[in-house]
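Example: UDP-glucose 6-dehydrogenase.
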Amino acid sequence: MKISVVGTGYVGLVSGVCLAELGHTVICVDVDTAKVDQINRGDSPIYEQGLDELLQKNLGTRLTATTDLERAVHETELSMIAVGTPFDGRAIDLSFVRQAAEMIGDALKTKSAYHVVVVKSTVIPGTTDSVVTPALENASGKKAGADFGVGMNPEFLREGDAVADFMRPDRIVLGACDSRSHGVMRQLYEPFTSANILSTNSRTAEMIKYTANSLLATLISFSNEIGNLCKKSGEVDVAEVMKGVHLDKRLSPIGENGRRIVPAITTFIEAGCGFGGSCFPKDVKALIAYGQSLGESMSLLDAVIRINREQPGQIIAMLKKHFHSLQGVSVAILGLAFKPETDDMRESPAIPVIHTLVEQGARIHAFDPVARNEAKKLFGDAITYAETLEDALADSSAVAILTRWDAFKRLPRLVQAMHPQPLVIDGRRMLDKKDFDRYEGIGMGERSL
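Written out as C-alpha cells, the predicted fold is:
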C-alpha cells in the first residue's frame, strides 16, 4: 500500500519507518523543514533502538519525507494522523489533530480516488467521530463513509522497544466508521498473519488505548503505595513482598512442564520512584478530565497521579535521613531518562529530584547513557554531566539510582572499591542490598537493612 504519515514525532516516525520495512511505500509529512531534511539524510531526530538502521535501509526506496502534505495525500491511499496531543492541565489539546484533519481534507477536495484517514494519535473517546470527521468533511466538501473512509488505530509502543513492538505486535486495534474503512485498514496489517486483530468502532478504540495505559500506571502507583507502607513497617522489604505476590499463579502461571511463566506485566507490580514519559502521566490525566466532564469523579486515577507526583520525594527523604543538611553534599544521580533505552526525559522522576537537590545546595554529578543532551536543555549549568559511570561516582557522598539502566549493574563492584563507600539509594530496587555497606531502597523497612 501507499501510505502518508502526518507527524514525524515518536509515534509517526516509528510507524512510518516500520511500515516501510513491511513493504509499504511511505511518505512522512512534517511542517518542520529541518526535521524533514534530517530524516531524508537518514538521521533519526529521536533516539530509539533499531530505528536509525531501518530508516537508512528504506530511505529513498520505500520511505521519503516531505513538507508537502497535499502531494503526499494525492500520492497515497491512506493517511495516518500522528501529531501531538499535549495536556494543558484541564484537557488534551486537539488543535494539532484538528489542523492535520483540515489540511488532509483540503487535499481530498481535489482527489477523486477513495482515501482512508486513520487517527494514530492518542485522543479521548469521540475525537475521531466528533472532531476529525467533521473537519475532514468541512474541508473536503465530501462525506465520510461514502467519499472517503475514517478510522482510529491506537499505538501500543513502548519507548525503547518501539521498533520491536511494532514489528511484533501483541494486538492490533482497528476502529472505523464503516466496513470499507475496516477493510482498507486490515490490508495495512496483512503482513502480521498471527497478530490478534480487534475490529470495533472508533470510540471504543480510543478508550482501549487510555484504559491500557491507565491500568499499567495504576499498578505502578499501587506498588509504590505498598512500598511506602513497607518502609514504615519495620522489618518488611517491598521487594520480597512483591516477589511473594508475583508467585500467585494468576500472575505467574505454572506451565505444563512445571516451570514458572513470568509475564512482563509483573514488572509493573514493583515499587520504584515513579513513572514518567510522554504517555502514562498525560493519558491518565486526560482520562480523568474526560471522565469528570461526564460527571464521573475518577477518584482512583486521581490517587494514581497524586501518589506518582509525591513518589520522587522518597529519594529526598532517604537522603535527608543520612545528611543533616544537603548543602554541599556531592550526589551522583544515575539515570535521567524516565526509563532505559530512551533519551526521553518528559515527566521523568529525575526532574523533581534534581530540582529539589539543587534548591537545597547539593552538588549534582549526573550520568545517563543517552539522555545527557536532553538533560542539558532542562538543567543547563546547574548540574555537572558525567561522561562515564566512574566519573559520576568520583568523590560522591551519595548515589541515587533513578533509571533501571543495565549499565548500572556494575555499581556494586565500583562502590566496593571506594573508601569510604558512598550511601547508595536504589530508586528502582535493581541491585542487591547485600552488596553495599550503606544502602537505602524504596520500600525497604528500617530493620530490613
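Residues 201-449 form a domain with the Rossmann fold fold (CATH 3.40.50.720).
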